[in-house]
Amino acid sequence: MKKRKLWMGFAYLFLGLLFAIIAGFTDTKLESLLWGFAGGGFGGGGSILWKYFYWSQPNNKARFQEHLEHEAIELHDERKEKFRNQSGRYAYLLGLITVCLSITIFSVLESFGIIQHTKILILYLGGYVVFQYVAGLLIFQYLNKKY
Questions:
Q1: Is residue 68 located within the same domain as residue 8?
Q2: Does one domain contain both 87 and 130?
Q3: Region 126-136: what's the mean pLDDT?
């Protein structure tokens, strides 16, 4: 494995430790969020380091090469690339539909007085729909010109 993975694992652990220290010595409303970041840093860094040391052992070298070859084949398989592209498109469309339905539901709930002060949420979701749509168009145009 590359040494970059080792350093990335140590960086994640360091960030986890940093967030844990900040969360431990401060008393703010963000304390739970800081503890979450600390856990994410410890978990992610520990996982990366475990994989690095596991695959770096001499008895796992051959298995690691097989793993890399299999991964390269999986990444460049045309059928799977097509499925990844289609699943990304469907997820994009499903996200747009979900946000549009959320806007409608929040508007109805506010009209009936069940939820109050949803204007900012509705405006945010509306802006997000516009952003998603424009980003989709721009990315398509960019890829269409590039290829």
A1: yes
A2: yes
A3: 91
